[in-house]
Amino acid sequence: MIRVVLADDQDLVREGLRMMLEAEHDIEVVAEAANGLEALDAARTHDPDLVLMDVRMPELDGLEATERLVGSHARARVLVLTTFDLDEYVYRALKAGASGYLLKDASREQLAAAVRTVAAGDALLAPSITRRLVEDFCRRPPHIAALPPGAAALSNRELDVLRLLARGRSNAEIAGDLFLSHATVKSHVARILGKLGLRDRVQAVVLAYETGIVRPGDPG
Question: Which of 66, 108, 196, 208 could potentially form a cystine with 20 if both were Cys, beta carbons 3.0 to 4.6 Å apart?
């Protein structure tokens, strides 16, 4: 059973999300929160698998709450709720450690699939939107961030995989591009995350752009 905390300042939104999620046989809503502070308390109390986090909330917004939750090394992963007109907030949430984002007008099937994907340890990346987000907000940074120490341990093949991953390619697409098996690509991604000390592929995308491993506008 996937245990979920719902964090949104609107009662009707939480009620709708609860109804959709609890219609699924494998998802349980264990707590609700109306702001970021309540979300953190609920995560500490209930130890959920996932927090479905709104961005704009009173007292403590979803961005700061996400950063604090991920920084506390809690087990729960964060799936951010957003709308298309909040791209900057989405990017900041991904950088803070969220494992993905979902539009508030998602269907029940999309919501359930997103929860299952993130709870399973995968990142929820819509490739076209994710690439646009990262390119928009990393286009001309004032300086290129330093590579983490583990970057020197990446093999040439792992760098190839990281570059494709950063461009929003799925494991299956990377396997086709590099003539590798799906299992081999999955192993490469796991080693990349381990060497760079990253939680998931969302953070790998952000790091790749911010450190210049991939630059906006580079050919695929």
Answer: 108
